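User: Could you write out the 3D structure of this protein bound to adenosine-5'-diphosphate? I've included everything you need below.
Assistant: Certainly. Input first, then the structure.
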Amino acid sequence: MGIAFWKGLLGDENAAALKRAKPIVSLAQVFEEEMRALSLAGLKDMTAVLRAELKSGKTLDEIAPRAYALVREASTRTLGQRHFDVQLIGGMILHNGDIAEMRTGEGKTLVATLPAYLNALEGSGVHIVTVNDYLSRRDAVWMGQIYFALGLSVGVINGDASYLYDPSHATDDTERDLLGAFKVMHDFLRPCTRTAAYAADITYGTNNEFGFDYLRDNIEYSPHTLRQRGYHYAIVDEIDSILIDEARTPLIISAPVADAERLYDRFAVIARKLIPGEDYSVDEKHKQIELSDLGIEKAQRELGIENMYTEKGIKYVHHLETAVRAQALFHRDKDYVVSAGGGSASVGRNNEVVIVDEFTGRLQPGRRWSEGLHQAIEAKEGVTVQQESRTFASITFQNYFRLYEKLAGMTGTAITSSEEFYKVYGLNTVVVPTNKPSQRKDHEDLIFQTEAGKYKAVARKVRELNQKGQPILVGTASVEKNELLSAHFKQEGIPHEMLNAKNHEREGEIIAQAGRYGAVTIATNMAGRGVDIKLGGNPSSDEEYEKVKLLGGLYVLATERHEARRIDNQLRGRSARQGDPGETEFFVSLEDSLMRIFASDIIKRVMGTFKIPEDEPIYNSMITKSLEKAQTRIEELNFDMRKHVLAYDDVLNIQRQSIYSRRRALLVGGHEAVDTELERVGASDEKFKSVVMEKKTELGITFYEQVQKFLLQTIDFLWVDHLEAMEYLRSSVNLRAYGQRDPLVEYKREGLTMFQQMESSYAMQVENILPNLRGADAVQPRRPEGGRGPEAILSGVIHSAVRSITMGASSPSHKKFERNDKVVITDGKEKREMKFKKAEPLLASGKWRIAQDQ
Ligand code: ADP
Ligand code: MG
């Protein structure tokens, strides 16, 4: 379904949504006098009163008018800013769990204080999400005094630290009110633990950090180091940037796994010595190989071991098979090429293996085969083997933010993406009118034939504006273009500032001055986002402000149309805040990438037929239209891509939730949770029950601690394995699409089977290993904060799993086989036939099981 069918909350519906929010203005008014009469201590007492009313059964909606009047009063007193009426309306929209589209400069930071305060009264925490760490600190410090005056605590989650807002700061406070829009007074932030920052009433932080903390909490081994305390209500600032632009790539916690034994190299040597047709058979069609007994024996001889399965386990078997596949099924210059790596390739091994797409024949630099195959091919070709990394946890932003009981957002630009917000997050977008009527002049696009011509014209225009002193913000679509333009300006002798979105804090301070008389600032779209550009600079004087106002305000000169209309609008929105004058103009060329890739053939044909100089604009409505069409198409394509990512993550999400909730119960549930889990696993197995009883006596007080740890480790080990298998499945179902099957349906179906298999492996492992649990050896080292990470834990589990093999644990399901019987086993991905004696250790590892159909 195209965007054309999506009506969203346009026109009437928008008006209706506004009408529903509007009464707050007069309702809050009623309490204004009462709030004004309160003493400073009285403000805090009022918070207690409201909390008590909630306890006694009043709803948030019922207390909203007084809460909003109270926040307004606290803000007026501390910050010197009284919430505008439209800000109260915006605040209601956020409280309702919708998106408030409010233009840049409308004061969204202040708007958020209203619903944040109101919802924090419930005591379950409120998260305010910002696009970078700097803005989270800025907003916490800037707004902190309002919350503090009302008796609420404020936390900040940053990548490298976390803080609590600390009002005991001594120095004079006027600077914060004056410069708080861009300057972070760090003295107001006291470092604290993650847990403490989340325990605050209101917590500011970035989407990445909130998401990562969720994942971190779910690979945690001690309940005392858990960070988050729930997902009550989130207000996402610049919601389009976070939930749309960043939603294509999921969050992943992974760690490199070192190949300490140089297994890839060793097995590559072995694979070379094996003879096809004798040591293994090759199935070219299914890209599979099967090792014969002869081949396995040969490999064992090479490795100097007796029985690879029992001595080394799955890992070696996997390596052997992968090495043989790399040797027999993947051919140089057909499936891959070995190319000179980037940069200064010196000695031999600096090359890299690049995949050749089997359908298009194109090279796929950067892409890698999974499951160690790429490494095996690197080893085969004598190219440096790159480190593997394993995924321990992952989630998309879509699914992270769906965890919240209530989600809301604000941005200057949401309406062009309202369909996506609604379909993916169930969020309605409501456009809130500006506080003062907008005075912005948006000029028509200027179109140039060549990029060089465009830049000449840009420089000319900037010089002309600069000569009269009008401040100019030049917007570019990439860091690369930014630098190109800056070099060009230097050559032309135009002094300017350049911002690449690299150091948010410093760039925030620079962008805050972009409205000064005579300022020229070149910035990428994300640079300085979230920081307001006031006319005359910041701080400004009336005189400076008037001078720039007379010149026409801030001139936004964009040098390219972006991938989405939304981002163009974001750039335009930098100009003409709060009823100020301002102008915007786009300079585009037929050589811009948007044009080159998406322009219709007609445009391509007319290109070059204009008989005018390259730095003279062409006025052609057809071109402007086709640019807009191109943007809509890219928007749709990107939306589809995000839907695709999400559709797959949704399958995993159900599994993730089930594993994580079981894990969480075990982690925080004490003895009872351990008992429940053991009962669940061995409910129908009397023998297992008696083993549990024996162990309780044997291990005494350490029983619960040990078993809890062991269960957690087993869950993690299998889950991480499962994640890897799901990744593998995902790439393989996409190939199968050529067999006319819907890959997503296949992924769902097989993903479910694999999950069920993981569940039974889990039960089996628990039953097999528990009897062998004893003394200290079963308890793996605790993971120190910032220590070696999950791999330490997981290698512990791998050890216990392997140990169980040598201890001869066997599961009841394969007792009916004789040692030399042929059996078919499966790990959920593939099936193998082998003698039972060979299969036994694989089965005992828990990863393989007897195939159902025997
Ligand atoms: P937005 O995020 O909507 O672009 P900001 O939150 O950055 O806007 O605020 C823009 C500027 O407007 C800030 O300098 C802020 O201090 C000012 N501002 C916001 N609300 C008010 C108000 N009610 N009264 C006075 N100034 C305000
Ligand atoms: Mg903002």
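The two ends are 46 Å apart (CA to CA).
User: Perfect, thank you.
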